[in-house]
Design goal:
With 82 residues, the protein is mainly alpha-helical. The chain has 3 helices and 2 strands; from the N terminus they run ββααα.
């Protein structure tokens, strides 16, 4: 990449082809979503049941927490369809 300075600003020329990120970077980017979803669906209900919370309450809590992620997905899908 060739850097050019004009009026104090540095510009990069596109003389070299663009380099794409390596594939493992995308797994790091999606990791927080996996941890969030995994915790909601597996250990959270288990820990709540061990604490003596009723099954109906566990389902309600898990559903409410999961609704946030579903709403985000709908926010992405609905404008694309319309």
């Amino acid at each position: 990449m060739v850097l050019t300075t004009v009026a104090g600003y540095v510009f990069a020329s596109m003389s070299e082809p663009r380099r794409w990120p390596v594939p493992w970077v995308f797994s790091v980017l999606i990791l927080p979503l996996g941890v969030y979803t995994g915790f909601i669906t597996t250990p959270l209900p288990f820990l709540l049941s061990k604490a003596g919370v009723q099954v109906e309450a566990i389902a309600r809590i898990t559903g409410l927490i999961s609704f946030k992620r579903s709403a985000i997905e709908l926010d992405d899908v609905v404008p694309a369809v319309w």
